[in-house]
Amino acid sequence: MKTAMVLGATGLVGRTLVNILLQDRRYSEVTCLVRKPLQSSQFSDPYNRLKPVVIDFNNLQDYQGYFSVDHVYCCLGTTLKQAGSKSAFRRVDFEYVHIAAQLTRAQRTGSFVWISSVGADAKSSNFYLRVKGELENAIMRMPQLPHAAAVRPSLLLGARSESRTLEDVAQKTAPAWKMLMQGPLKKYRPVHASDVARNMMTRQKW
Known about the structure:
The protein is of the alpha/beta class. It has helices at residues 12-23, 80-83, 86-106, 127-140, 165-180, 193-202, and strands spanning 2-7, 27-34, 50-54, 71-74, 111-115, 148-151, 156-157, 191-192. This is Nucleoside-diphosphate-sugar epimerase. It holds the Pfam family NAD_binding_10.
């Protein structure tokens, strides 16, 4: 059986992913590094596999030992509005994820999968997409981390604890988007969190 670790377990995709992992009999333990205690009501853990660990993400390197698992899933991410500044956004969406990849490499973990974004490009004029692209470049060029993969979703569909305007609009107009976005535009269709989570699982090295 495999062991997994999830960073960003309380976000839309992270929460969905953890619940899927807890039901998957291929996993014996699912460790979640979190900022504060998890709400048990958000997770179904019939086999007692969930292992939440409250940490200080500003000192993520101090928790290297937890990365000694088979699969690392990184669902960390925020928005400029939530972060409050570009530097705070970059700290979460670039620095934390990059450090997680480094710790994965240090522990010789089987594989590392993280959430990027459709349109990620280190040369983009859009700050959000530029940071995502810079992160992809930094991780994919990292030596001795051969099994790393980025998942690139568009707008996410699912029930969030907080409101995000664009995603709220996407929820209501998803059927129309699917009809209009064909061919090359298909990758920009809104996608359900459960589909992103399952995609992350298929990208792991089994």
